[in-house]
Automatic annotation (TrEMBL):
It comes from the Bacteria. GO terms for molecular function: hydrolase activity. Pfam families: Acyltransferase, HAD. NCBIfam families: HAD-SF-IB, HAD-SF-IB-hyp1. This is HAD-IB family hydrolase. Keywords: Acyltransferase, Hydrolase, Transferase. Residues 311-425 form the Phospholipid/glycerol acyltransferase domain.
Length: 481
């Protein structure tokens, strides 16, 4: 049956009872992420020549033939686990984090992320319930803030290495349903009030364990089962396809950015003011690049940008598109903050030096204040600075841990921090992509935060409070009540 859209699902969650007695069980592959996480591991092993040809063929054949029964899954799992035999759990944990950052994380459905956040805000017991191993699911659970997991346990031998066998029954099909019931009994979860989400027809028994099941992005088999049982079925929009036109527009985007910047800078220098030229170049370059890319800005709270300048502008970093958004949003009178290694980058170094970037030495922990001095100097000269407090691009819509450097800079310079929340730049240009897709980038500018009175002993807590503002804003976007 045709069911509600993702926005209606969110509303249902927000109107549901509060508290940990309500569970929210999310399947992983195909439900929280697009595609299958094991494929990233197989691609890695093939690329690094760490996988023999016979194992590769067997694994790919098992996948292409399809998995219809629990017996099929056990066979596929056996092939996969044999690839890991002899490795330590620590090796696979490290590999899992790397693959999540580079490949798996960017495929998280934004709509699924918002559902997870909505359940967490209601105080529900949220569980990632998957037949995958913890090497696949654990990085996702940590990044999404999911506190509980159900996964396939793997056997570790006396030598501390994987044996190539599962440890007990895998939570697949009826096994997942049984695991959910056991979890609910152990954690005091009322399954009749609980939610579950999955995309695969193997999860009919899993969905049937709860009172509020949803076939999310369902396969044909699950769609039929949902129609028979009266369950809602909701399709999620996929990632946009890359076309030759979008490649051409992206080339035009970078050309517009550089052309606008150079033109504005030149006009400013003719007028005798380098800073006026930089401001004009940033604004003109931002406008031309956004126009060429087909990206528009939908801004909430834009007046906060001008309330207290200079300031430290914070933004949640998702992709290279953020740079264009910053130019179109702030217009000028700001300098980026970047790690000092970028100063010698042959492609970006010259441009960043022209932008009067404050290069900081993030490895200089022993002299942290000195390392931050370039950014403080920019602020004291009347120029705002822009910092990504995560220090790198996040793999999912959920911002990572905030570093404290941006807040130290603001305190030393005596200026406020202004949070810029970018909702969907990662959807129009994913973390490691080169091509920009047209669309609307949503930006929320939060009120300036005075950090001058913050007690240094409470800095970790206060920084986390700011990060929570991002999470709350992203999950409850202004104007969508």
């Amino acid at each position: 049956m045709s069911g509600p859209d993702p926005a209606t699902l969110l509303e249902d969650v927000r109107n549901s009872p509060e508290g940990p007695a309500v569970g929210a069980f999310f399947d992983f592959d195909g439900t929280v992420i697009a595609g299958y996480s094991v494929a990233a591991f197989i691609r890695h092993h093939v690329k690094t020549l760490d996988l023999n040809a016979s194992a590769t063929v067997k694994t790919l054949l098992a996948g292409t033939q399809g998995i219809e029964t629990e017996e099929d899954f056990v066979k596929f799992l056996g092939i996969t686990l044999r690839l890991w035999a002899g490795r330590t759990p620590e090796e696979l944990e490290k590999l899992g984090r790397q693959l999540f950052r580079d490949e798996i994380g960017p495929s998280v459905y934004p709509e699924s992320w918002r559902l997870v956040r909505a359940h967490l805000e209601r105080g529900h017991t949220v569980v990632l319930a998957s037949s995958a191993t913890r090497f696949q699911t654990d990085p996702a659970a940590k990044a999404l803030g999911i506190p509980h997991q159900i996964y396939t346990a793997v056997e570790v031998g006396e030598d501390g290495r994987l044996t190539g066998h599962p440890d007990g029954r895998s939570p697949y099909g009826e096994g997942k349903a049984a695991a959910v019931k056991d979890f609910a009994a152990e954690h005091g979860v009322d399954l009749d009030q609980s939610f579950a989400y999955s995309n695969g027809n193997e999860d009919v028994a899993f969905l049937a364990t709860v009172g509020r099941p949803t076939a999310l992005n369902p396969s044909a088999g699950l769609r039929r089962a949902a129609a028979e049982r009266g369950w809602p079925a909701v399709d999620l929009p996929g990632r946009p396809w890359t076309t030759p036109l979008q490649v051409a527009r992206t080339v035009g985007t970078y050309a517009g950015m550089m052309g606008g910047f150079v033109t504005g800078l030149g006009l400013g220098l003719v007028g005798g003011s380098r800073r006026a030229g930089l401001n004009l170049g940033i604004g003109l370059g931002g406008d031309l690049s956004l126009l060429a890319s087909g990206v528009q800005l939908d801004i909430h709270g834009g007046h906060h940008i001008w309330e207290a300048q200079p300031a430290v502008f914070l933004f949640n970093h998702q992709s290279q598109l953020d740079v264009l958004v910053l130019g179109g949003l702030l217009r000028g009178n700001f300098a980026p903050v970047a790690k000092k290694e970028l100063a010698t980058n042959p492609l970006f170094g010259p441009l960043m030096r022209l932008l009067e970037t404050a290069f900081i030495d993030r490895s200089d922990n022993a002299q942290a204040r000195k390392a931050l001095e370039p950014a403080v100097e920019r602020l004291r000269s009347g120029v705002s600075v822009v910092i990504a407090p995560e220090g790198t691009r996040s793999a999912t819509p959920s911002p990572g841990t905030f570093k404290k450097g941006a807040f130290h800079v603001a305190r030393q310079a005596g200026v406020p921090v202004v949070p810029l929340v970018f909702r969907n730049t990662g959807e129009l240009m994913s973390r490691n992509a080169m091509v920009i897709h047209p669309g609307v980038v949503q930006v929320a500018v939060l009120p300036p935060i005075d950090v001058s009175s913050w007690d240094p002993s409470e800095l970790d807590e206060r920084v986390e409070e700011v990060r929570q503002q991002y999470l709350t804003t992203l999950a409850n976007w202004p104007g969508e009540d």
